Amino acid sequence: MQDIAESNRYKAEVKNLSFFYGTFNALKHIDMVLHDKKITALIGPSGCGKSTFLRCFNRMHDLYPGNRYEGNIMLYPDNVNILSPKVDPIEVRMRISMVFQKPNPFPKSIYENVAYGLRVRGIRQRAILDEKVENALRNAALWDEVKDRLSDLAFNLSGGQQQRLCIARALATDPEILLFDEPTSALDPIATASIEELIADLKDKVTILIVTHNMQQAARVSDYTAYMYLGELIEFDETDTIFIKPQHKQTEDYITGRFG
Amino acid sequence: MSKQSSEKTDHVGRLGYSYRRNLHERFIESVLFLSAFLSVIIMLAIIAMLVKESVIFFQHVSIWEFLTDTQWTPLFNDAHYGILPLVTGTLVSSMVALLVALPLGTIIAIYLSEFAPFAVREVAKPFLELLGGIPTVVYGYFALLFVTPLLQLIFPQLPGFNLLSAGLVMGIMIIPYVSSMTEDAMRAVPMHLREGSYAMGATRFQTAVRVVAPAAFSGIAAAYILGISRAVGETMVVAIAAGMQPNLTWNPMEPAATITAYIVQVSLGDLPHGSIGYQTIFAAGLTLLLMTLVFNIIGHIMRKRYREIY
Amino acid sequence: MNNVNDLDVLRKIIGRHKRWDLLFMIVGIIALMIAILTFIALFAQMLVDGMPRLSWDFFTSFPSRRPESAGILSAWVGTTLVMLVTAASAVPLGVSAGVYLEEYAPKNLFTEVIEINVTNLAGVPSIIYGLLALGLFVYQLDFGQSILAAGLALALLILPVVIVATREAIRAIPIAIREGAYALGATKWQTVWDHLLPYSSSGILTGIIIGLARAIGETAPIITIGALTFIAFLPPAPVTDEFPYLSFEWLSAPFTVMPIQMFNWVSRPEEAFQFNAAAAGLVLVVMTLAMNGLAIYLRYRMRKNIKW
Description:
The complex is a heterotrimer.
Chain A: H1 4-8, E1 10-21, E2 24-35, E3 39-43, H2 50-56, E4 67-75, E5 80-81, H3 89-95, E6 96-99, H4 110-120, H5 126-139, H6 143-146, H7 159-171, E7 177-181, H8 189-202, E8 207-211, H9 215-221, E9 224-229, E10 232-238, H10 239-244, H11 249-255
Parallel strand pairs in A: 3-8, 3-9, 6-7, 7-8
Antiparallel strand pairs in A: 1-2, 1-4, 4-5, 9-10
Chain B: H1 2-7, H2 19-60, H3 63-68, H4 84-115, H5 118-133, H6 136-154, H7 163-187, H8 191-199, H9 204-215, H10 217-233, H11 236-241, H12 259-268, H13 276-307
Chain C: H1 7-50, H2 56-60, H3 73-104, H4 109-123, H5 126-140, H6 147-171, H7 175-183, H8 188-199, H9 201-217, H10 220-225, H11 258-266, H12 271-305
């Protein structure tokens, strides 16, 4: 299909992916790629399956019974299908981190929240933990605000800070892909702006896939955009193309707000 | 019509409050309130009754003697009134029970809440509830006639009445209370916290131990405290299987009376109302109530705190 | 160790963690098995010892000094009558208190005191209720060592269970139902009586059954009251053939109940009485299991049928 050189620039490639909640077919034959160190946005009306799609990338669906994948998501450069039953979802989740819609810090200190992923890997040396936690918090633009109260309970942070803490938590383990599931939908405009800025800064370090219900957000932060509708991928292209001259009428309707 | 209303602006006609309807509602509310208030009266009555008889008791026996004497023989001619043997009996049997109930109850709760498939949980939960509904006198019978003989195969010198088998059976009996409250607390932890942990690549065990259990901490603590107060207040199992001889010992292999067993022993006899023997059971009861009240109040504070955490 | 994403290291760590998962799974199943096996052992022991004694005569005979002719007639009659008193007093009081706390009570310190108090009452050891009943009902109010005193003692004991069940059942009804009733001009009490109580009835019933199942098995408070254990007669019948056809003499009659009868037999040295104890225990366990089973079934059906 494509030559090796090209696939080197892909971080992941989705091939004919379908997904079922029991008998309900939530995703239908999706083909897409994630470009390495780029931001890809998933947009579409609610219920179109964009979050479902996102959660395939770290096998979150394995947590609940009755869910079934068909097709492949190839992860490069390993060239393995992360949906294969032989692949351990835990390993997938260690390499592909996720930030959720609602900030979900653990009921632990700020420090322990960020260190969690490292502790899960069995890292106990204080020096390594300290260094990684500080780096992650700096990368999440939270270090200056919390460096004096790392042992405070994470619940005491504001909503925007909590979300940045969750991003720091996801960054601490140097993931290869970072998944964002509507990360700003529970936040006020100011906190949203700072998270968006942060996401844009992160793309040098990590490949990002972001679900958003907010088209301006997709336009502002992403390099590529995919429009989904009723479990199908309608259109996938560079963000500029999608927003300026979309190929499909349906995409255009949604983007221009003519969609119900 | 508009003329009328401009003349009499306070006229409300059929929209006025009905005096009768109001009275009726007020009456019902008062009755309901009294029913709710009855619970306070009961608690006050319990305390008043125990304190009243205990005060008379402590006119005969000094509190110092009560707390420091190492013998409890109120019904003998050479009467001693030291509560210590009963307290140690209570503590030893409770300790054995809790060593069984807290670990097993917690493990079962974690297993059911985080590991077990849906079908297992649906069967196991009601089953545990049934286990908790069995009368304690039946557990006493089981401890005396099944568990003790079984233990005697391992420890031939074990006497027929002993704190060990009473405590073990009591522990099994308390498991459902601990496991069901612990599980409720763990299941109240929102799913998004678990997802956060799984998304970091944590396993089930790591998620359960490092995220879910700490988040449910106060609820789990409340479950433990309920378990403790049940163990301390349990009567029939110890009365049947541990014997009724006060015995100042920390050794679970010996027979010993608990506070509750002593009350049963006295009640079985025919003690005249108003005698010092009659008053001893109230003094013993007061000691027991104070022990459990302290645990319950701690439990209530814990429960309130964990409701506010998310 | 600097590269936390060295794949081989990662896989080794994951493998180790998964072994913990598996280990805990096994430990969990073993723990559950211990509880289940204990129950089976308990039931089997009673079945083996008690089954041969279970016959029609066992239910229709009074206790006796000769174990082979002793029965539980006075015990099950006593239990039935005591439960009548318990249900008749705990149900109206508990449901009223639950309704008050859930629907009427203002949010203030006093209400909170009542609420804390209900929780505390639920944690008071049952034998303490026995002491209260002994001092208050038996002597102060002079009910004597009677069915009335025992029934009231057990009613106080299960009151918190009924209150909590009522509150939970009423709380589960969505606010829209209340607003619907108020919008039609219903008063508060009409809303409660016509809507909230009927819609929460199976939840309340579940709580009542669980409470009564607990009361049936309670031994300690009744011993404390000083209930006689050797009763070879029945209390006066509640129904008479003369006007007014109802008699309440039975309320003040001496009595025994099933768990007391069992306790009495367990504490006898002769082995033959242990078989009687086992048979009585079997009846008692089957009764409480049936009641709790019914409650669980009701709750299960409720969850399936009602979707607000």
